Amino acid sequence: MIHEDVANTIDILLRSGHPNPQVRTVDEKGEVQITQEEPDITPNPASFGRNSGGIVQQPKGWRASGKMTPVTPFAGKRGSNLSSASEFDRLLDASWTQPEPKGDKIRVPGPNGEDFPVYIYPYGIGRSQLEQVIEVLNLPIVLTKDLDNADVVVALRSHLKNQSKLRQVAKMRQVPIHGVKSNTIPQITRTLQRLLGMDEAKTPETADLRLFTRGGNDDELEALEEARLAVEQIVLPKGQPVELLPRSPKVRKMQHELVEHYRLQSDSFGEEPNRRLRIYPA
Predict the structure, then answer these.
(1) Dihedral of the alpha carbons of 217, 254, 203, 263, in degrees to the nearest 10
(2) Which residue intervals make up region (Disordered) (predicted)?
C-alpha cells in the first residue's frame, strides 16, 4: 500500500477524511500491478459517539456537569438594564445633595453690594486646588457639597459636556454653571475672580508663589522663584526665551502653571534627570 503524496494524505486524515492509497502487487510474470483502493465512506450509525477504539465518549464540560442554564430572554435583560439605570440615576441624584453641618448662610455685603461669601458647588475640579486659591488670595468663597445650598456650580468643561444630568439639575434649581477650561491654578484663579466680578488685569501681576507650590518646601519655592525671575526680568522685558535648571516632573508642572499665569508658553525638553523648562516670549 503506497501513498504517493504523504502530505496530502496527512491533511485528509487530519480532516477526518478517508485517503485513497495505491495498492501495488507483483503478478506471476514478475510485473508490478497498480490499483487504486476506494475508501469506505459508508457511515456506521453504531460508531457515532465512539472514538477510534470503539469506546463510547462521554459528554464533557458544562454539558456533563449539568450546570448549563437557559439563556435569559432579551426582554428580561432589557428590564435588568433599566433597573440598573434607575439605580444609577438614584445614586447620581443623591450625590448632588451630600449632608453638611447644619447652619444658616452667613452673608455680608460686598464693595458693590454683592452678597458674600459665594457658595460654590465644584464638579470635576480638584478641591485641594480650589481651597488653595481661595486661601492664598483670601477670596470670599465657600465650597459646598450640597447643590441645594450652592449659589453657582463651577465645573470642568470637559466633564460638563458629558454630564447632561448636572445641567438638568442645575437648571431645575436655577443655579448657574461656570466652566473652567482646565484643572490648573491659573485657570481656576481666573474663573473665581471673574465669578466675583474682579477686574482682570491686562498685565499679569507678580505671582504669589504660594498659589503654585504643593508642599511648600524650599526646593519647590526655589524652582518657582527661578521661573518667576526668568519671566519678569528676561522673557517679558527683553522678549527672549529662557531655559531653566533641570527639575523633577512634579516641580516642572508647578513651573508650567506659573508661566501660564503670565500668559506665556513653555515646554519641557531633554532627557531625565536633566529635563528642564524652556519659556518663550509672547
Answers:
(1) 170
(2) 35-82
Asked if the structure places residue 95 within a domain, the reply is no
Task: Read off the DSSP letter of residue 282.
Answer: -
Q: Please indicate, yes or no, if residue 241 is contained in any of the structural domains.
A: yes
Q: Which CATH number goes with the domain that contains 225? A: 3.30.1370.50
Considering its fold, how many domains does the chain have in total?
Answer: 3
8 Å CB contact between 217 and 166? no
Helices (H) and strands (E) in the chain, counts: 10, 11
For 202, the enclosing helix (H) or strand (E) is none
Q: Structural domain of residue 238, as residue ranges? A: 209-280
Global pTM value: 0.57
Residue 97 reports pLDDT greater than 60: no
H-helix or E-strand spanning residue 23: strand 22-26
Provide the residue count of the chain.
282
DSSP for 223-252, written as a single string: HHHHHHHHIIIIIHHH---EE-----HHHH
Q: Which residue has the cell 453657582?
A: 152
φ, ψ for residue 249 (rounded to 5)?
-55, -40
> Tens digits of per-residue pLDDT, 227-270?
999 999 999 999 999 999 999 999 999 999 999 999 999 999 99
Q: Is residue 11 domain-resident?
A: yes
Element at 177 (helix H, strand E) = strand 177-180
Answer whether 152's CB lies under 8 Å from 191's CB: no
180-238 pLDDT, tens digit each: 998 899 999 999 998 888 876 666 778 888 889 888 888 999 999 999 999 999 999 99
Is 172 among the domain residues? Answer: yes
